[in-house]
Amino acid sequence: MSKEVVISTRIRLARNLKDYPFPCKLGKQGREKVIEKVKSAIKDSNSAIASDFSFINMESLTPQQSVSLVERRLVSPEFISNTEGRGLLISSDESLSIMINEEDHIRLQVIKPRLSLEQAYDTADKLDTLLDENLDFAFDKKLGYLTQCPTNLGTGMRASVMLHLPALEKSKAISRIAGNLSKLGLTIRGAHGEGTEPKGAMYQLSNQVTLGISEKAAIENLKNITIQLVTQENQARERLCESIDVRDAISRSLGILRSALVITHEEALKLLSNVRLGILSGQIKDIDTETVDKLMTAVEPATLSVNSNRQMSPEERDEERAKLIRETLK
Fold this sequence. Notes:
Elements: H1 2-5, E1 6-15, H2 28-43, E2 53-57, H3 63-71, H4 77-81, E3 87-91, E4 96-100, E5 106-113, H5 117-134, E6 139-140, E7 144-145, E8 157-164, H6 166-170, H7 174-183, E9 186-190, E10 202-207, H8 215-240, H9 244-259, H10 265-280, H11 289-298, H12 301-308, H13 314-329
Antiparallel strand pairs: 1-5, 1-8, 2-3, 3-4, 4-5, 6-7, 8-10, 9-10
């Protein structure tokens, strides 16, 4: 059941160019030079991966388009807070992306479905090697890769998995689990990382330690803890779904989603989370988790507007969201 509890895997690497100050100390002209160097490093390589990238000048995007990138977990909230002198390289299937001039010159990211830490790291490592062949990274023999924030020193790697944990959330076990995880060098947060609240029982589990530990050891630790969390969620789900009240809430959630004419973002995520719980418990058999996972992203406010190709008021979005859900789940 791990593949259903784990929505996706992400590997992110932070890198900086040796001869340039960190982005916070770079003027617009300096940032543009960094962008050109990173773009050239990709474009001038002979790798098949490189030919799949397209470039987005962040200054050219509307606010909604920028926020949608965050909602789809392709960039960080910090990256869109000030778009001047920032660029994004992204693959056609959006599984690979490179943020240029966020906190560090390069934030390389790989997203894979389900629990696939080794595969995601292997892809990230290949892309990192490709860039390293053409760029001179800031590296110290003792400290490893140099980053603006000391917490990223060393490997510069953040590995994370997105988990759906409705049973552990409903049984109020998350706060206890979070305390235990911090002792193991891991942290659990909302779906969009630091400072975000979990919605729809979606949680991001990631490594905190990057210094004095190898990438392989960090990934192995994260994988082992993820498997333990999945086991706990599965056991909690079995107990939880014995309750008639929980089964009733699941049935009502599906009924509302299939018939509502207006639905808010928050309500949609809550009800979709209940439906997903119903799928995994075997109560709902005519919908699969992949459909629900896609909907959970598609109903996000900015993504909904971007996909509809029009500006919408909050009220219009609530109608459009309900229509999209009805049509998908009918």
